[in-house]
Amino acid sequence: MSSDIDLRKLAASIVLFIMFTPILLMDLDKMIRRTLMALTLGKCLLRSCREAAGITQADLSDRLHKVLGLSVSPQLISLYENNRRPMPPLNMRGVCIILGCTEADLYEWPR
């Protein structure tokens, strides 16, 4: 008799598991998608920050090299500004120091 009760509990647990697994997986999928979006860079706003500071791509490149020792060509700055290449953290920090802005100012961050 005890084994019948255990088998019924086990069967009920399996049915519940089968019923709710797709729902749990959908929630997990939504959480993963939200996390990936939060870790994705949006549009690069470097151009507007640079122009607000009144300097050209060549000036920014020159200052990054002279002040911080970073080799960032005007062509590379153009790639950043046109969303063709993401800025590595070190270059991003250097740009922030030269332009007097924060990392959050350099990209649109998805919510």
TrEMBL record:
State if Membrane is listed as a keyword: yes
Q: Which InterPro entries match?
A: Cro/C1-type_HTH (IPR001387), Lambda_DNA-bd_dom_sf (IPR010982)
Species: Paenibacillus anaericanus
Which spans are transmembrane here? 12-28
List the Gene Ontology MF annotations in alphabetical order. DNA binding
Q: Does the keyword Oxidoreductase apply?
A: no
Where's the HTH cro/C1-type domain? 46-106
Identification of the protein by name: XRE family transcriptional regulator
Q: Which domain of life is it from?
A: Bacteria
Question: Which terms are listed as keywords in the entry?
Answer: Membrane, Transmembrane, Transmembrane helix
